[in-house]
Amino acid sequence: MTTSCSCCSATGETVKLQGNPFHTEGKMVKVGDVAPDFTAVKSDLSEASLSDFKGKRVVLNIFPSLDTPVCALSVRQFNQKAATMENTAVLCISMDLPFAHARFCTTEGINNVVALSLFRDCGFAKAYGLRIADGPMKGLMARAVIVIDENGKIVYTELVDEITHEPNYDAAINALK
Question: Active site annotated at which positions (predicted)?
Answer without folding.
Answer: 71
